[in-house]
Design a protein that fits this description.
It is a single chain. By secondary structure, the protein is mainly α. It is built from eight helices and three strands. It is globular and about 50 Å long.
Length: about 190
């Protein structure tokens, strides 16, 4: 179901518009939505291993560009830092501006099929019970490892590969993350 090379700005606009409440709360969540939409639709965005899992500099640049152009509104929310926190001490929320909605409307007319596929993919991802940024981050890490190895892997092998990348995938979360990946149709079974 490859859709070729999609402009990352178009992808970001669509993901924000099609997410619940027409907003995405957090850069990590935005990156993971983009990662899984990319995996499901093969839209041609490259991702590399990063602290919170697969990361695309193109998605980050596209998001910044859309904010600068006034098509996305970015709100920063700060949280008290704690020594036990492993995720971000602040969150950036994104929503479409009225100008962003106008651009999206034009894009949807030009690329009806593509935007329909993105809407369906975002809906599939966000409809899952475990669709918070932490679960998606862990799922993205695990899927990146499985995809890069291109072979069935045991849990111990996944955990070892994660450790090599500097990632922590808690053993207690493996089953939940595997279930999410199965529900997304990305894997069949992790043993």
């Amino acid at each position: 179901m490859g859709t070729g090379n999609v402009d990352p700005r178009d992808l970001v606009l669509a993901m924000v518009a099609f997410n619940e409440g027409q907003q995405v709360q957090g850069r990590t969540l935005l990156q993971k939505l983009a990662y899984f939409v990319n995996e499901q639709l093969n839209v041609g965005v490259e991702f590399e291993p990063y602290y919170y899992g697969p990361y695309s500099a193109r998605i980050a640049a596209a998001t910044d560009s859309l904010v600068e152009l006034g098509f996305l509104k970015e709100i920063e929310e700060r949280f008290p830092a704690s020594a036990t926190d492993i995720f971000e001490p602040r969150r950036y929320s994104y929503s479409l501006t009225s100008e962003g909605n106008k651009v999206l409307k034009k894009l949807k007319k030009q690329e009806r099929s593509l935007f329909s596929k993105i809407k369906k993919a975002v809906g599939t991802i966000t409809s899952k019970e475990e669709c918070d940024y932490e679960s998606l981050s862990l799922a993205a890490k695990m899927f990146h490892i499985l995809k890069s190895q291109q072979k069935p892997m045991k849990v111990s092998e996944v955990l070892a590969a994660a450790k090599e990348l500097g990632w922590n995938i808690p053993l207690a979360e493996i089953e939940k993350v595997a279930k999410l990946l199965q529900e997304l149709g990305l894997i069949q079974k992790v043993s």
